[in-house]
Design a protein that fits this description.
By secondary structure, the chain is an all-alpha fold. The protein contains nine helices and two strands. The longest helix has 45 residues.
Length: 245
């Protein structure tokens, strides 16, 4: 009897482990596909004058003074989209949520058009591979560690919000390159913690997502979290390591 019970437990554990691996594979596939879509959109928008000029404000002499109204709308739209996805996750269908996910990836790509105007293509590629390697190691740590990273959540979330608000104020009021560089280093530190934390969170949420459509939705939202972590790490590393034109 004990042998039968032990065999049943082992079979269940193997089934859960296989299910978790399949879930994480879906998450990483969604994340990678979204990054590819974002990169293509950003490249197209950032290298096509007819498009990127729509996002830039110019003075009477033709000098670029910042973002146009449309540029600000494109820059802030991804924030609105991700908030909507978080709020509506449980009320919309999986197909609708997936459409919103791809829409978010496209909006993020448009918002990143300026990196191709500011940095050389070679340094963008170099920083991307550095980001990929760093992200991979941190995500592996978050997946495999036995340490509970839950306590990191509040600190990291508050840190991200604080950096965003200070960055926004710096763009509008201070225009300090020194402060921008400091915020980039802080951003890298936060992104490192977020990658490990979110990977563990994605893993743990699998066990609480039930089955069917909820698991599919959980894989999308998990991909969204890790996608954000990757982009956030990449942008901050690019500000530090990127070669300007």
């Amino acid at each position: 009897m004990n042998l039968e019970k032990q065999s049943s437990t082992q079979t269940s554990a193997v089934s859960v482990d296989q299910g978790l691996r399949a879930h994480m594979l879906r998450v990483y596939n969604y994340m990678t596909s979204a990054l590819l879509l974002t990169g293509l959109v950003a490249y197209f928008a950032g290298t096509t004058p007819e498009i990127y000029q729509l996002f830039l404000a110019q003075n009477a002499d033709g000098m670029i003074t910042g973002l146009s109204g449309l540029g600000w709308l494109v820059a802030l739209a991804p924030i609105g989209m991700v908030l909507v996805m978080g709020v509506r996750m449980n009320t919309v269908s999986y197909s609708t949520l997936k459409t919103m996910f791809w829409g978010y990836s496209i909006l993020m790509g448009l918002s990143l058009f300026s990196i191709f105007l500011v940095y050389t293509g070679a340094s963008i590629a170099r920083v991307f591979f550095i980001t990929a390697g760093t992200f991979g190691l941190l995500s592996l740590y978050g997946y495999s560690t036995k340490r509970d990273l839950t306590s990191w959540g509040t600190f990291l979330s508050v840190g991200i919000l604080a950096v965003f608000l200070v960055s926004l104020a710096n763009v509008i009021f201070f225009k300090s390159s020194g402060l921008d560089l400091l915020l980039s280093y802080v951003g890298v530190f936060l992104a490192i913690g977020l990658t490990a934390y979110d990977t563990q969170k994605v893993k743990e949420l699998y066990y609480h997502s039930g089955s069917g459509e909820m698991v599919q939705k959980a894989s999308l939202m998990g991909a969204l979290s890790l996608y954000f972590d990757f982009i956030y790490l990449f942008i901050n590393l690019l500000r530090i390591l990127g070669d300007r034109r």
